[in-house]
Amino acid sequence: MEYKKYNIKNVDVYFIKTDKFKTIKMDVLFLNDYDVKDFTKHKLLQNYLCRSTNNFKTEIKLQREILSLYDLGYGISNNYLNVNIKSFNLNFLNEKYTEKGMNEKSIDFFFDLIYNPNKNNNSFDEENFNLSKKVLESMYKRQLEDSNYQAERNSISLITSDLPIKYDSTGNFEDLSKITPKSLYNFYKKIIKESDVKVFVIGDFSDEEMIKILDKNLKENKNKDKYIPKGFKITKKTDNPVEKIENANYNQSIFIMIYKILNITEREKNYVLPILNEILGGSNSKLFKNVREKNSLAYYIYSTRIGFQSTLIIESGISKENFEKVKEIVIGQIDEIKNKNITNKELNSAKEKIKSNVLKIDDNQGRILNDYESEIIYKLKNSKEFIKQIESVTKEEVASLSNKLNLDVTYMLKGVNE
Amino acid sequence: MKYIEYKEINEKVLTHKLENGLEVFILRKKDYNSYEARFFTNFGGLDIEFVPKGEKNFKKMPAGIAHFLEHKLFEQKSGEAVFEFYKKSGTYVNAFTNYKKTCYHINGVKNFKKNLNYLLDFVQEPYLTDKNVEKEKGIIIEEAKMNLDDPDRLFIERILKNIFTDIPYENTVVGSIEDIKNITKEDLLKCYNTFYHPSNMKLMVVSPYEEKEVLKIIEDNQKSKKFEKQNEIIKKEYKEKEEVNVSYDTLKADVKEKRFCYSIKMNINKFNANKIEIYDSIGIYLSFLIGSLSEFNLNLKKKGIIRRNISYSVSFEDKGKEKYVLIHIYINTDNEKEVIKLLEKELSKKEINEKDFNDFKKIIISSIFFNLNTISGTMGFLYGTYNFLGELDSKYFDIEKNLTFDKFKNIIKQLDLTNKSIVILEPKE
Asked: CB count, 10 Å around CB of B359?
């Protein structure tokens, strides 16, 4: 699919036209600097803005309006690289299936959410603020019930490099207690003032009509191209990895190993790391075959790559007495890759999996938008070029990248209920 | 062979029953790149007492056997595991077992014909040995342990166990650790031979390909195989009485917030309506009365009596001789006694005006469109509708659109909310 680019009030706007889907989807992206200390504020703001607006001052009024707009979908998400990319997302039924004028009504409503929040004087509305606060408090309590979440947060906080991932992007109780309706409003104003805005729209609509609606709703963008999203490179090696075991009242133990990737290149981050990750800890991978199938030590074991933060995380649910054994197998399998003990089958299967994923992008509106956003904002290659690059990756490159893996943390949340 | 057409949403399904009894449903999504197929059997966690094929007496199997069998079908004689095969073309394969069914599914972009054939082949060619059965026990025991640490799962298991007396919900889908240890190769084969005959199975395919072409692939595959004649499967019949098993219960688990589930069990014969009409009417009614948009929900949140939106679900239980409609209402609160009183008062109101009814109906219509945007969503729609109704018919979409306010009012009038079962989920300390 091709896109058409427009400039509306100094905002870069991208249209992807197709009649394949029954809905129209829009992402409005705000790019801005951020501080990890503000994670809780970002999370609270996310909830507050979705709850009410100046035109619909209670949740019930807002939700009833959404109902009359054929139950449109909307949300806000945050992505943290060196900059924050705050994405406001809208998805609504194309008016050709409902009533004429619904496209405009839906988009007007959406921008109301972004630019016209519920406020009194120079502060957010106290009642709605408190409701949002309660939601976050409830979320933090639920996190304490989730053994995987606990193990992940506890282990990641031990990482020796100062990366954003070390800090829980959903926030915490302590920071939440310090935020007021006024301070959150000021925080919101700052974001609106300082952000660079970009818009992506996919669906079946007329350019002319959509430009008119966006021109009505968008504000003048004074920060065009001000922020350049980049990843984090780690150069410092860990010679003494942290090893920690903590007890918890669970039946199963959660085992985590975290590796830093030293001096990762752009090519490695974008094309080699996905393949290494798939071979090591993807479906039916080396870890799966050796920890689960051969030794029956786990129901699940997998690895996750966070390329932009040069990190690889391995996680498994095991019985506590197998800690050393599983650790040995993981280290052993990474050594296998270092020694180029990768079969053609393993390499090709990994490539096929990744390519397959890419080929599915065109079947999903959200993924199509993300693909264009990656290309335009993160300066990654488009799908066709990406597939070519993936195909060109060699065993030597995978082995070479695995030699950059530096063990930083080994952790177990030991279940003492067994 | 016939087509079921959903004119308003511009989709159609080809359906056909093969000679060996396998029923097939094929939907084409023309401009898409990927495909999904689901091959499933009417054999799940509740089916532990039945007459094995070729035998005369009932046998009671250890709980978890359907799930164990699901794991084992991924084993192949040739040594190349199922995962390995599909990995070569980057195709996703997995399976799941619930209380009623076991389902094997694939999702991919390449090698459609080869991969669809393989799906049918690997499920229809079991390879069980004493050694590979023994090996699997360790893995499934870890899965069972993982589930014991999932309070929401334990909660649902308890809720179902307390609603039903006769239908054996005291058994979990994965089975207890003791159950798993007691499963034998012979028992697994008995289950396989009884429940995996094509006449007890269905195949659904959502793909970009022409329906009759897809049907030919399936027919050619099945023609080349020989299946013994299958008599009707004799499963233990559950009468299932009307009253709930346990009306009030507390479950302590590793949770930080107390919550409860208020369930209501109603005999489906009380309503003079079909399943879709009942389901949509109750859904609209609950949405309006206690859903996230309701005054009831918002007031309780504002006063801090409940911590999050009330959620609910409507489902049907077909396992017993008598069929039931179930409502589950989930509320997150420390003051369960007070909230239950308020909830019961609210539920007895039975008022809704026609404008609100029409607005809430919009949700039902639009959710179908949202699902049909993706291959997975379309498969979910097909699979969900079929399993919910027991069949697929275009008249059901019409019913959704044409559910009248009068019909709705009549159904709501018949709601009997007295047969209830409450489970409180609370922290251990």
From this structure: 19
Mean pLDDT of chain A: 94
The angle that helices A39-49 and A126-143 make with each other, rounded to 10 degrees, is 120
- Give which of A351, A357, A360 to mutate to test B binding, by max B Cβ within 10 Å: A360
Partners of B39 in the β-ladder? B104, B203
User: Which tokens hold the place of A314?
Assistant: 């391995």
Cα separation, B214 vs B210, whole angstroms: 6
- Of residues B90, B137, B369, nearest to A356 (C-beta): B90
Contacts of B151 in chain A (CB under 8 A): 145
Longest dimension (CA), chain A: 66
Q: How large is the average pLDDT for residues B2-7?
A: 88
For residue B41, CA distances in Å to A21, B52, B201, B410 come to: 32, 16, 4, 36
Encode pLDDT of B376-396 as tens digits.
999 999 999 898 888 887 777
User: Residue B135 is nearest to which of A58, A63, A296, comparing CB atoms?
Assistant: A296
The CA distance from A138 to A249, in Å, is 21
Which strands, in side-by-side order, build the sheet including A253-261? A242-248, A405-415, A253-261, A311-318, A301-306
Q: What does the pLDDT look like over A368-407, one tens digit per residue?
A: 999 999 889 888 888 888 999 999 999 999 999 999 999 9
Handedness of CA B208, B211, B212, B215 (dihedral sign): positive
Cα distance between residue A296 and residue A290, in whole Å: 8
Read off the tokens for B266: 């109603």
B9: chain A residues, CB-CB within 8 Å: 22
Chain B residues touching A353 at Cβ < 8 A: 87, 90
Q: Would you tell me how many other CB atoms lie within 10 Å of the CB of residue A196?
A: 22
Q: CA A138, A139, A144: angle at the middle one, nearest 5?
A: 100
Helix intervals (H) in A238-378: 266-267, 273-281, 286-287, 323-338, 344-359, 365-376
Q: For residues A152 and B96, what is the distance between their CA atoms, to the nearest angstrom?
A: 26
Within B82-184, residue ranges assigned H as helices are: 82-87, 112-124, 130-148, 151-163, 177-181
Amino acid identity of residue B300, one-letter, is L
User: Does residue B429 sit at the A interface (CB-CB below 8 Å)?
Assistant: no
Predicted model pTM: 0.86
A78 - beta bridge partners? A86
Output the average pLDDT for chain B: 93
CB contact under 8 A, A60 and B151: no
* Portion 302-341 of B in contact with A at CB < 8 A: 302, 304, 307-308, 332
Nearest residue, CB atoms, A68 vs list B359, B367, B372: B359
Q: Can you spell out the DSSP letters for B251-278?
A: EEES-SS-EEEEEEEEEGGGSSS-HHHH
pLDDT, mean of residues B270-293: 90
Instruction: Give the residue from A117, A105, A19, A18 showing the smallest Cα distance to A76.
Output: A117
> For chain A, which ranges sit under pLDDT 70?
418
DSSP lists the bridge partners of residue A15 as A4, A201
